[in-house]
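Open question from group meeting: does this chain pack into something compact, or does most of it stay loose? Before anyone orders reagents, we agreed to write out a predicted structure and look at it together. Recording both the input and the output here so the notebook holds the full record.
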Amino acid sequence: MNVNSTKDLSTVTATIDGEHSPYADSLPNICPRFPDSALIKAGLDPQMGRNPLSGKTTGLLQSCSLAASDPSGREFQLWSVAVGITSQNIRQIIDQSQIHVIRSNVSIGPHSAYMFHSDGDGPLECSVAWGTFFGSVMIDFNGEEWDPIDPCAKVVDVAKVLYPYIPARPSEMR
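Structure tokens returned:
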């Protein structure tokens, strides 16, 4: 595999187990990939920061936590999302016993995503995930009780804005 390749693999989906993926130990910090303009378009507040799971590469997962501020100023945040990339393929994600797919074939740009809940999720939580050439992308939405919105509709809206900033070429995995 040519890790310097600039070939667009945005519609390629990995099938190898994540533990054996060439990207298992080389997932990049994705927080800096999201420009302020995209975060604002998604309803997120760039001033609230981009909080990586780790500033360094982690084994099977790299995640970035983002939040929407409360325009009224009464509360710290309206809602948050965690955007994660993993070397695990999409089947390894959605076939887990604690994952409950509520809709498949959700269109996120050129991707066909799964919408799901996980065991223990509250009524204002929802996730989407889709396969990539390096494994999978997951976006988890977490709302607040005092500002109820449809979490599944919102996570899809956010995903549609942020997907272009997810690596689509091997050369972007550094």
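Observations to bring back to the group:
The chain has one domain: 18-165.
The mean pLDDT is 88.
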